[in-house]
Design brief:
3 domains, alpha+beta, about 20% strand, Rossmann fold, 6-stranded mixed β-sheet, about 450 residues
C-alpha cells in the first residue's frame, strides 16, 4: 500500500491543474488500479481523464462484458469513455498487430482531447517478462532494457507509473480499496510466450528474491544509461553516414564495429519505434551481413512488412507494399521472409515436425529457392499417392487469404515444390528415414 501511495504522490507532482490525460483501460486489475489513482487525483487537480478501451474482437468469451464493465465504471465516475472495436483482425501475429492498432487509437484520442500524457498500466512483473523474452530472443541494447517508465513522444509523454510495483502489490491495493476488475482467462494460456514466463519463470525468480523486480528495474535503467552514452558518440557521426533515411556504406565501413552496430540499431529503432520487440539478433546480423557483403544489389525481408535493400553504396529500409508480396529468394544458408520468419539450414534435427525438412541433395536440383504461391501449384505430399494442390492444403489448414499471399514455398531449381514450411512435407523429405545432407528449419 505504501508503494502505491508513493505513486499517487509522484503523479500528484507530475500533473498540473486542468491537464487532460489518456489512460488505456482493459478492465483488468492493473489498469483499474491505475484508473482509481487517477480518479482520486481528479478531486484535487481537476484533471480530464479520457478512458480508452479496446475490444479486440478476437473471439474470446467475455470481451463484450469487459467493455460494458469499463463503460459502466466511467458512467458512475463521470469519466470520458472512448471505445475502439477491432474489425477483421489478421490471424497471424495477433498480439503485435493488436498493439499497433492500440497505440494508434491512443494517439488519435490524445490529439482529440489535446492531452499531455498517455498512461498505461505496465508494472514491474511486465518489465521482467519483457526483458527475459528479449534476452532469450535477442534484441538491441535499448531493446534489452524492456520499456521505460517515461517516453517523450514530442507532443505528449507515455507514462508507466506502475513499473516499480509487482502484480501482487497491485492486487493488494485493489483489495484494500475494494476495486472491482475483470479477469482475462487467456492470460494464463501456455500458447502465449509471455504467459509461460509469467507462470513458470517469475515464481522461481521471486522465490529467490522477493524484490527481484527492483533489480530488473535497475538493470533496465543502467542499460538505458549506457545506450544514451553510446548514442552521444553516435550523434557525432550519424549525420555523415545516414542522411535522408539512406545509409552511405563507404562511410559506415570506416566506423568501429560497436558504432556500426549502433548505427544499424539506430535505423531499426527509428523505423520500428515501440514495435522494436519484433527485431531479434538474427535480423541485426542479417542486415550487417547484407551491408558488408560483396553483392552490389541485394535485399532481405524484415518483420512488419519492411524490406531492407542494398543498392551499390546505399542501404535503406522501405515498406514492402502489398503489390510486392510476391517474391522469390535463393536459399543459401538462410532466407529472411516478408512474414518476419526465417528459413535456415541447421546442423541437426531438434524435433520432427512440419517446421523441419530433410532433403537429399542427389534427389533435388540445387540451389533451392523460396517463393510465394503461383496458380496451379501442386506438391507430391509425403505419404500420399499423386500430388495435391497447394490451394487445397491451405484450405485444409484454414490458412487465411492474407497469409496465403505471403506463405513461403520451397522449390528446387527445376521448379519442383519440395516443402511447404509449417504445413506439409513432400515426398522428398527424409526426416524419418533415408539419407539426407540438407536440414532446413522454418521459424
Amino acid at each position: 500500500m505504501v508503494i502505491m501511495e508513493n505513486i499517487y504522490e509522484e503523479l500528484n507532482k507530475l500533473l498540473n491543474y486542468n491537464d487532460a490525460v489518456v489512460v488505456g483501460v482493459s478492465g483488468g486489475p492493473d489498469s483499474m488500479a491505475l484508473l482509481h489513482i487517477l480518479t482520486r487525483l481528479r478531486k484535487s487537480l481537476n484533471i480530464k481523464i479520457v478512458v480508452c478501451h479496446i475490444n479486440h474482437n478476437s473471439g474470446r468469451a467475455g470481451q463484450k462484458l469487459d467493455e460494458e464493465f469499463v463503460r459502466k465504471y466511467c458512467f458512475k465516475e463521470n469519466l470520458i469513455f472512448e471505445l475502439y472495436t477491432i474489425e477483421n483482425m489478421g490471424e497471424d501475429n495477433f498480439h503485435n498487430e493488436a498493439r499497433s492498432i492500440r497505440y494508434k487509437f491512443y494517439e488519435d484520442m490524445i490529439r482529440k482531447y489535446n492531452a499531455k500524457y498517455l498512461f498505461t498500466a505496465h508494472h514491474g512483473d511486465d518489465l521482467i517478462e519483457t526483458i527475459l523474452m528479449r534476452i532469450t530472443r535477442g534484441s538491441t541494447l535499448k531493446g534489452y532494457s524492456g520499456f521505460s517508465k517515461e517516453v517523450d513522444m514530442g507532443s505528449y509523454k507515455i507514462i508507466r507509473p506502475l513499473i516499480t510495483v509487482t502484480k501482487d502489490e497491485i492486487l493488494d491495493y485493489n483489495k484494500q480499496n475494494k476495486i472491482e476488475y475483470r479477469i482475462d482467462d487467456s492470460n494464463m494460456k501456455d500458447v502465449y510466450t509471455r504467459n509461460r514466463y509469467r507462470k513458470y519463470v517469475l515464481p522461481f525468480l521471486k522465490k529467490e528474491d522477493s524484490n527481484v523486480h527492483k533489480k530488473f528495474y535497475k538493470f533496465s535503467k543502467i542499460l538505458l544509461e549506457y545506450n544514451d552514452y553510446i548514442e552521444s558518440k553516435l550523434s557525432n557521426v550519424i549525420d555523415n553516414v545516414y542522411k535522408e533515411n539512406v545509409l552511405k556504406i563507404n562511410e559506415f565501413l570506416k566506423l568501429e564495429y560497436i558504432l556500426r552496430m549502433k548505427v544499424i540499431n539506430y535505423i531499426l529503432e527509428s523505423v520500428y519505434a515501440d514495435d522494436l520487440m519484433l527485431i531479434c539478433d538474427s535480423h541485426v546480423d542479417m542486415i550487417y551481413d547484407l551491408i558488408t557483403s560483396s553483392k552490389a544489389n541485394s535485399y532481405l525481408y524484415l518483420p512488419n512488412n519492411i524490406k531492407a535493400i542494398k543498392s551499390y553504396d546505399n542501404f535503406y529500409l522501405e515498406l514492402n507494399h502489398k503489390d510486392s508480396y510476391k517474391y522469390e529468394i535463393e536459399l543459401d544458408s538462410y532466407a529472411s521472409l516478408p512474414n518476419g520468419k526465417v528459413i535456415e539450414k541447421i546442423d541437426k534435427i531438434d524435433k520432427n515436425s512440419n517446421f523441419v525438412c530433410c532433403l537429399d541433395s542427389k534427389e533435388v536440383k540445387l540451389p533451392l529457392h523460396v517463393r510465394t504461391r503461383r496458380n496451379g501449384d501442386k506438391m507430391s505430399v509425403l505419404g500420399l499417392m499423386g500430388s495435391k494442390k497447394i490451394k487445397d492444403i491451405f484450405i485444409d489448414n484454414k490458412v487465411s487469404l492474407k497469409q496465403r499471399d505471403m506463405w513461403p514455398i520451397v522449390i528446387d531449381s527445376n521448379g519442383v515444390i519440395v516443402w511447404l514450411p509449417g504445413l506439409k512435407k513432400s515426398k522428398f523429405d527424409k526426416t524419418k528415414q533415408g539419407n539426407y545432407d540438407i536440414i532446413l528449419k522454418y521459424h
